[in-house]
Amino acid sequence: MFPRLFHLGNFSLPTYGVMAALGMIAGLSVVVRGARREGVDPDKAWNLGIIGVLAGIIGAKVLMVINDWHYYTEHPKSIFTLATLQAGGVFYGGLLAAVAVAFVYIGYTRMPLLKTCDIFAPGIALGHAIGRLGCFAAGCCYGKETHVPWAVTFTNPLANEWTGTPLNIPMHPTQIYEFLVEGANFVFLWWLLKRKRFDGQIMGTYMFLYGIARFFLEFLRADPERGSAFNGALSYTQLISIGLVIVGGILWARGVRSIERPAAVTAAR
Q: What's the CA gap between 269 and 264, in Å, rounded?
């Protein structure tokens, strides 16, 4: 599609970078609004968002290198190339790194853990949705060959040069699939935030919904950065998706019990 917006001499502006920045700004704006609504310090929420984004960028690159370790051990200089820098990386690597750093920051600043997670869930979904449009422009995170009417064919040589995207082959627009999933998640989570019944409900819902969607979308992906497990039966990303669904279910079960317990005590009286 359009891997870069323009170039001037040796300088070029990658479309993915621009979309990722827009996604970050939009996501953080949602987080700050959610923080005010939930009674969380918006300045702390903003700072946490910035730290999480930086950790996410590093984590996404690290997991990308780990998943394609054989290639990078044979071509170690590739880790420091412009192509690697401009590649989106693996989303789950970024998510896990951001979560780890967030736990440390939340503990240090004594922010309410589950309430903070809830205000971040819609912002993560929105930022990720916009970022996937950047993936579509760059050609990364591409799908398997298909001949469905909505298949996309990449022809820009830069897409192949920067991310290894196959050219002139109709493929599933997996980037758009995920954009639609995350866009729908954002709308639903923002609606649910106004009606939440317990802390952890919004993040638990996001983890459950996205985990299921990503697990099945992985079957349509063809890019190699996600790694494989069980002799290729599943990708590492699918294993992480299963973990997200389990943790999301636990948050829901915990929250429902916290609601039912006081109700049972009241009824007993």
A: 9
